[in-house]
Amino acid sequence: MSTTHSANLERSLLLIPLPLLLVVFYLLPFLGVVGWSFTLPEPGIEQYQRIATDPAIHDMLWRTLRLCLTVSTLALVIGYLLAYCWVFSPPFWQRMVEICIFIPFWISVLVRAFGWLIALRSNGVLNGSLMGLGLIDSPLQLTRNETGVVIGMLHFMVPYALFPLLSSMRQLDQRVLLASRGLGAGALRTFWQVLLPQTVPGLLGAFIMVFVFCLGFFITPVLLGGGQTVMIAEYVFLQMFQTSNWGLGAALSVVLLALVSALIWLLLRITRVNRLVG
Fold this sequence. Notes:
15 helices
């Protein structure tokens, strides 16, 4: 046996555990969920028909879509501003952006959600400060509604929008921007006609990435929504563990996974992943 063939065989043997683990821990459980969606409580496509016709499920899906789009759009705007500041600002402001991004990023989502719950409640820090300054006469209702959910999700998702945008901006040849300014274009025109078009792949990648993450949010909507803003992940949990409707929960899980897979496929088609991560 040649040395090259022996090396290839050893490499193949080292790689075998990875697909095996993926099959055991991901593919087989997923096939089990698909089976539940077609067999519980009775064999058939009843659960998918219910998803297609039930107004309550449609309201939940529309709410999930609306919140995910809102958070993704806001995260994209904030992330773009932070990325621009990080790339083009002096070192002091770059360090400030790093501190503002990385310190919250290291805190768990559960701690962040409880922190926002304390800050946004009627007698919380935000309402207390606004009333102390005389800006409002009575506390604002910032929890148990979509406003609190959006704030909590947005705080968590901004870094995930920032990193692809940051990578996209860092790959720009800044001499092109200097040439634009040298040819008489103002700062705004340079941004709209030079900088923004070259960062479109990063924008699209960041938007899809944030949207996919938002679809699976569970803790933040549960705590800040207080049962009034149920998204698809919480709805699946309720169907499986409170109403024991495992078939409907499994069918919704399959629909969610299909949507996420389609978005990831779109992400891979419109941009190169290595350009998003540097």
